[in-house]
Design brief:
The complex is a heterodimer of chains A (215) and B (491).
Chain A (H helix, E strand, L loop, with lengths): L1 H20 L3 H22 L6 H29 L11 H24 L9 H18 L3 H21 L6 H29 L13
Helix pairs in contact in A: 1-2, 1-4, 1-5, 2-3, 2-6, 3-7, 4-5, 5-6, 6-7
Chain B lengths: L2 H15 L7 H21 L14 H28 L4 E2 L6 E4 L2 H20 L3 H19 L2 E2 L1 H30 L10 H7 L5 H19 L7 H8 L2 H28 L3 H24 L4 H22 L3 H30 L10 H4 L1 H14 L6 H15 L3 H26 L4 H4 L11 H19 L3 H14 L3
Antiparallel strand pairs in B: 1-2, 2-3
Helix pairs in contact in B: 1-2, 1-4, 2-3, 2-4, 3-4, 3-10, 3-13, 3-19, 3-20, 4-5, 4-10, 5-6, 5-10, 6-8, 6-9, 7-10, 8-10, 8-11, 9-10, 9-12, 10-11, 10-12, 10-13, 11-12, 11-17, 12-13, 12-16, 12-17, 13-15, 13-16, 13-19, 13-20, 15-17, 15-19, 16-19
The chains are: A mainly alpha (215), B mainly alpha (491).
């Protein structure tokens, strides 16, 4: 099982690097959708030997929302806003990739003390992998201009948090798991509505140009 | 019974969202607020038996914040009925820049208000940290449409910042919740507060500390602690005033409550000193940052927003110091909610009369609109902690707690920040209240602006309450405050 989960985490790390290096928003949405599938696979791979129906159903629901529904919503938003590329990000794509590599190393470093006292049975790569996904999302949010790319960053962050939850075997009650999933879905949905309104009002979705309010 | 606290506003809110009920909307909004207040009053006076493993239960901190939320919402809903009547269905000219804009549909606004109440109530009664997280995130999502009620570029900017910054912050808080679950060294325990507190002793310190830092950053963002406060002045200044009152008086408390849950787990694990210290540092930082931004503030709603950051800092400081300062901080949170509600509603009246948020263009409020002027002045005295209002007592209690504990440096910085804030606010607010109205100075004879009852009675009620709490804190309230402090784990 460890080998399998390690492989999946490595794939997750690669998707993050692709997110950091790609300028096409369409490609980024595609990558986030792949992440959604990987999340489901990781959740099943790290679970204890017997798969319960509840776990399988929840995982399927997560994959359905994160790999199908949200990417579909985002693609519609891209068409609506008529923006297909992240032009001139605040941190360039080459620099972002280098930052990503550094972040990855950092994640392995800082997860060591936590790893030492982690609950038994957690693979060596899961904690740093999840941490890297979360930090990549955060970095995307602060280093990109387009509101849509920032939403993708937020989704990546949420994916990282989800991997943590799955790998630490946090068994939440069904209601709470569904609540978290619903919140993420509604969150992206509301962000999509606000992006639509911003685009109608300003004719652009460059968040760095939203700078009237300040002291 | 307790589910009704969440269920009633949610059900009424969804009904209001449905389109065919145009006429009944204001009545339904009031009805929802009233029904909620009645249920809350009954569960607070006669609390249902505390089931330790239940996800939803009412303990002392929850009871305190639920009561404040319900009261403030009732007041704001009363104000909203009149406000919506004047604002709805017409294009408005922007006060600052003169362009025309339309407002959001009334149904969406009223519906989201009620759903906002439902989400905040769920925060107050959640005993399961996962459910608590779901509820806090839900408050962000349903309050975003409230901030962009006025459809123009500034409110959209504020909404975007609010949504993104708070969602990111709260995502980190979820990570913190997962860390708490993982701190049990492989022992499986649930995420109910009861089982976390019971098993806290045996948890791993490194994971617990990491969990608290994540919770502090996450919920602290929502609570408006510096340096994660950047969304707060924008959202509070661009939202309609009654929404600002709710954001400041009720929502910040909810985030505070979520943070206190984390603090109580650390205190139970014997790490209260660690989390307390972090709270003290962020509390003082918030007070300092707010004071600096208040000195040269040009916009009176932003001034109030920074004052909220300052007071959340005071509360965090009080909780972090421990001892007597903790019940003081609880009292402070209650007083702050009431007074900030009063101030934001009064600010809404000022905006309606003067059509500007710029401090320098508002003069002679006492002459122009005497009641609003008196409320504005009283609110200023109350929020800066002048006697005989309630904040004076709570700030004094926190100071006493700090000195008893021997935290001299914190006491000095605390007093310094309070002093700077007092002078800064006095310099800005007093000329607004007194001064010559511009129209009088120019020799024009404009009719005195009207002050409708819906606009002055709600803030007047809050002013009375703030005064009453300053003159007399009933023993039953002290009991709840000290129970709440004990539940948080005053060390």
């Amino acid at each position: 099982m460890d080998v399998l989960s390690d492989m999946l985490v490595m794939l997750l790390v690669l998707t993050n690097l692709r997110l950091l290096s790609s300028s096409r928003i369409g490609a980024c949405i595609h990558t986030v959708a792949i992440q959604g599938v990987l999340l489901g696979a990781i959740a099943l791979a790290v679970s204890p030997a017997t798969l319960s129906i509840k776990l399988v159903a929840l995982t399927l629901a997560t994959v359905a929302v994160k790999a199908v529904l949200l990417p579909w919503l985002l693609r519609r938003a891209v068409r609506g806003a008529g923006v297909s590329r992240e032009v001139e990000p605040i941190v360039g794509f080459t620099a972002s990739t280098i930052v990503g590599a550094l972040l990855l190393g950092l994640c392995f470093l800082i997860s060591r003390p936590l790893q030492a006292s982690a609950p038994a049975g957690i693979g060596k790569t899961l904690i740093p992998g999840a941490m890297f996904t979360t930090l990549s999302g955060l970095f995307l949010i602060v280093s990109r201009r387009k509101a849509l790319t920032q939403v993708l960053g937020y989704l990546t962050m949420e994916n990282g948090v989800y991997v943590f939850g799955a790998s630490l075997a946090v068994r939440e009650p069904l209601l709470v798991e569904l609540g978290i999933l619903l919140d993420v879905f509604v969150g992206v949905f509301v962000m999509g509505i606000v992006i639509y309104q911003i685009n109608r009002e300003f004719d652009h979705i460059d968040t760095d140009r939203l700078s009237v309010l300040k002291d | 019974m307790l589910w009704a606290v969440v269920g009633i506003p949610a059900a009424v809110g969804l009904t209001v969202l449905a389109p065919p009920l145009r006429r009944a909307r204001p009545a339904l909004l009031l009805l929802g607020a009233l029904a909620h207040a009645v249920v809350v009053a009954s569960v607070c006076l006669r609390p249902p038996a505390y089931e330790s493993e239940a996800w939803i239960a009412l303990d002392a901190p929850g009871r305190l914040f639920l009561a404040v939320t319900s009261l403030l919402f009732l007041v704001a809903a009363t104000y909203a009925v009149g406000y919506l009547r004047t604002e709805q269905g017409r294009t408005t000219r922007d006060a600052e820049e003169g362009f025309l804009f339309r407002n959001e549909p009334e149904g969406v606004f009223a519906g989201c208000l009620l759903l906002f109440l439902a989400a905040m109530s769920l925060v107050c009664v959640s005993q399961h940290l996962g459910l608590l997280w779901v509820a806090v995130e839900a408050t962000t999502l349903v309050s975003a449409p409230l901030i962009s009620y006025h459809r123009h570029h500034r409110s959209l900017e504020a909404t975007w910042k609010y949504l993104l910054i708070c969602s990111v912050g709260i995502a980190l808080a979820l990570l913190g919740v997962f860390f708490l679950a993982a701190a049990g060294r492989g022992q499986t325990h649930g995420l109910t507060l009861h089982s976390l507190l019971a098993s806290a002793r045996g948890m791993d310190a490194a994971w617990l500390k990491a969990a608290f830092i994540l919770l502090l950053v996450g919920y602290g963002t929502k609570m408006g602690l510096a340096p994660m406060h950047t969304w707060l002045p924008d959202a509070h200044s661009e939202a309609p005033s009654l929404v600002s009152a709710l954001l400041s008086g009720a929502l910040l408390n909810c985030a505070l409550l979520a943070l206190l849950r984390g603090h109580s787990v650390l205190a139970a694990a014997g790490l209260g000193g660690f989390s307390g210290q972090l709270l003290v540092v962020l509390g003082l930082l918030s007070m300092g940052a707010a004071a600096v931004f208040m000195i040269r503030q040009g916009d009176y709603k932003r001034l109030l927003a920074y004052s909220s950051i300052e007071h959340m800092g005071v509360v965090a400081l009080g909780v972090g110091l421990g001892g007597l300062a903790v019940p003081g901080a609880m009292l402070h949170a209650v007083n702050h909610s009431i007074i900030k509600g009063l101030l934001f509603l009064a600010a809404g009246n000022l905006l309606a009369t003067y059509h500007t948020k710029t401090i320098r263009n508002v003069r002679g409020v006492l002459r122009n609109t005497p009641v609003t002027g008196a409320l504005w002045l009283a609110g200023f005295l109350a929020i800066t902690g002048s006697p005989p209002f309630g904040l004076f007592q709570s700030e004094l209690t926190i100071l006493k707690g700090a000195m008893d504990g021997g935290h001299w440096a914190a006491s000095v910085l605390y007093l310094l920040a309070l002093g700077v804030v007092f002078v800064a606010m006095a310099r800005l607010v007093l000329p607004m209240a007194f001064g010559e109205p511009a129209s009088l100075a120019a020799g024009e004879t404009t009719p005195r602006p009207r002050e409708p009852a819906w606009a002055i009675l709600p803030p007047l009620g809050l002013a009375m309450l703030a005064l009453a709490l300053g003159l007399f804190v009933p023993q039953s309230l002290w009991d709840v405050l000290s129970q709440a402090a004990a539940a948080i784990g005053a060390h």
